[in-house]
């Protein structure tokens, strides 16, 4: 029997859309099979912003596709014709505190804060390890999300469910 349901669209947000949200997008698209479709965006990506090369390296080393990943503004997902989002997750504290666009359909929201692995003046090897640790922390939480039964993913319970997923 084939599953004819549409996948749940999940948008991961952070400020510049270069590190954490990019990791989460790639990871969920890798793990989510046909149940989830992930996107990412930033509240204020810099001009010519690109995904952080260390993040792309960590994804590549983990065997996760980086094809199609690009930094973009969250305005792209609030515009007419954008994919309808079912769940929006902020992955940085700055984006969580910002005034978000009005999302069509009033999707469920959650905040899963992660430290910025690209922040500071640490040596490249130390930053690479920070990206790897962030990827693993996200993976643990996303494993919980993708393993949820259908009733926990229903619109009426999705927000509560997503906010309760804690990574240990």
Automatic annotation (TrEMBL):
Residues 8-148 form the Phosphotyrosine protein phosphatase I domain. The keyword RNA-binding does not apply. It comes from the Bacteria. Pfam families: LMWPc. GO terms for biological process: response to arsenic-containing substance. Keywords: Arsenical resistance. This is Arsenate reductase.
């Amino acid at each position: 029997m084939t599953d004819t349901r549409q996948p749940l669209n999940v948008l991961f947000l952070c400020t510049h859309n270069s590190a954490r949200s990019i990791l989460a997008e790639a990871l969920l698209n890798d793990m989510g099979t046909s149940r989830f479709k992930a996107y990412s965006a930033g509240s204020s990506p810099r001009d010519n912003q690109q995904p952080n090369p260390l993040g792309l390296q960590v994804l590549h080393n983990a065997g996760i596709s980086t094809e199609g990943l690009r930094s973009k503004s969250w305005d792209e997902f609030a515009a007419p014709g954008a994919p309808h989002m079912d769940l929006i997750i902020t992955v940085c504290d700055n984006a969580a505190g910002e005034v978000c666009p009005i999302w069509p359909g009033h999707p469920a929201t959650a905040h899963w804060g992660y430290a910025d692995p690209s922040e500071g003046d640490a040596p490249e090897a130390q930053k690479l390890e920070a990206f790897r640790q962030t990827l693993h922390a996200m993976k643990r939480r996303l494993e919980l999300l993708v393993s949820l039964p259908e009733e926990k993913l229903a619109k009426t319970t999705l927000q509560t469910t997503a906010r309760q997923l804690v990574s240990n």
